[in-house]
Amino acid sequence: MFAGNRRDNQTVDWVTLSIYLAMLGVGWLMIYTVGYNEGYDDDFWGMLGSTTIGKHTIWMGISLFTLFITFIIDWKFWRTFAYLWYAFGLVLLFLVLFLGTEVKGATSWFMLGGFSFQPVEIAKFGTCLGVAAYLNNFNTNLKTSYGQLTAFGVIAAPMLLVLLQPDAGSALVFLAFLIAFYREGLPGNYFIFGFFAGGLFLMGLVYPFQKVLLAIFMILNLLLAYNFKEYKIHWLLIILLISAGSIYGAYIGFEKEALMGNVGLMFALGLGQWLMKNQRLVFTVFAALLLGGIVAGGANYFFNNILKSHQQDRINVWLRPSVCDPQGSLYNVIQSKMAIGSGGLDGKGFLEGNMTKLNYVPEQATDFIFCTVGEEQGFIGATSIILLFFLLIYRITMLAERQRSPFSRIYMYGVAGILFVHVFINIGMTMGLMPIIGIPLPFISKGGSSLLGFTLLLGVLMKMDIYREMP
């Protein structure tokens, strides 16, 4: 277990390790300043167990010890027992549904003494190993239906268990493995389909069904017109003029008439393409119309008839803030933006953030820790943190591409994907660009299980890179 072979000139990647240690330092300082109003005294041992920064310091020590353990264990250990780690993560996610403690409406935590532990962090690591093990199998082919369904099943199992908690934010993170799937040969059409369906779903949440359906017809009519071989420009100009008229008609109240006009136009254009022997295009367009109608209509029904009021508020805060109460559901985002904006170019200085000290921003040690960075360190500090994260992600992809072992490469792309989703969503939601779904900023947010999970992901990654010449 502790043995291994490597070339003498191969050592730990100091760039990745340095960024990790820098992130730990930044996180410690930010959590220190957030918890400063708790009052720190000279009793060091008492402070460790009773304050936010004290508990975080303990978790830092546990994480650094875990990092050391990953460095001394043979990297093949993780490949050999990958499926066991994956199964272990699933078991934890199953057990927390019955033995876990409910926090803010989600049964996502095990309580151990004065500490809490979120098993989804271990499940992310186990799924990363499980995905790498499955895609590394010589029989796996992501260009076949069986290979694709099985791969999707590997990430769907933990997603389903997390959704049952319910914790939609953490479940969303498992979609990060699609990046590894794409690198290993998943056809790009799936991503085109996903973006198309996702866009229609979001439109269905925000706009009435008829307006979304009108937009679908206009887009598909443009596609049909573009594929005429003769008089293409003329057709496109005609469709653009009709589309402009449809938009105006819908705006002044003739939405139904505009929709019926586009329906007739589609049948005319479709008939023209059919007569020109473009049957495949016609089938594709009408399939897209059917899919779009189902997705948009389903989203509209889901939003209005299934979601509870507080869940609707979360979506409205993200997509329709104008309809939200500034003193209610929109309060967190407003305070978050104010805190970040108040930092200016170079910030107010360490421990000088008034909004941080006075707890104007809820959950500022966890979900909204980036507000503290923006207020105290300003635009320069916030931008530096973002650049540091993307340097880490870019570095991981570089390490992945120099691996001889496909298992190591796939694992590293999984880690890069998880980090990207966490950073993108967490920072985005503090600025109102993403929904508030409650996932931490890696290495910086308070949360021992999160810190331990990300340390485990990076530690195993760096160990694999030391032995990158091993197939």
Written account of the structure:
The protein has 471 residues and is mainly α. The protein folds into two domains: 14-185 and 340-466, no CATH class; 191-306, no CATH class. The chain has helices spanning 14-34, 44-50, 52-72, 76-80, 82-99, 120-136, 145-163, 168-173, 178-183, 189-206, 209-226, 232-251, 255-275, 279-306, 309-319, 331-342, 354-357, 369-401, 406-430, 448-466, and strands spanning 101-103, 106-112, 115-117. A three-stranded antiparallel β-sheet has the order 1-2-3, with helices on one face. A hairpin with a 2-residue loop joins strand 1 and strand 2. Helix 6 (120-136) packs antiparallel against helix 19 (406-430) and helix 13 (255-275) runs antiparallel to helix 14. The longest helix has 33 residues, at 369-401. The mean pLDDT is 85.
Question: What's this model, at a glance?
Answer:
With 471 residues, the chain is an all-alpha fold. Helices cover 70% and strands 3% of the residues.
Spans where pLDDT lies below 50 across 5 or more residues: none
How many domains? The number is 2
What is the end-to-end distance?
A: 17 Å
**Biggest pleated sheet:** 3 strands, antiparallel
Gyration radius, rounded: 26 Å
Q: State the strand order across the main sheet.
A: 1-2-3
What is the H/E order?
A: HHHHHEEEHHHHHHHHHHHHHHH
Helix content: 55-70%
Oligomer: single chain
* Total of helices: 20
Structural class: mainly alpha
| Form type | globular
The overall pLDDT average reads 85
- How many DSSP-defined strands? 3
Q: Descriptors for this entry?
A:
3 strands, 20 helices, globular, 471 residues, 3-stranded antiparallel sheet, single chain, 2 domains, mainly alpha
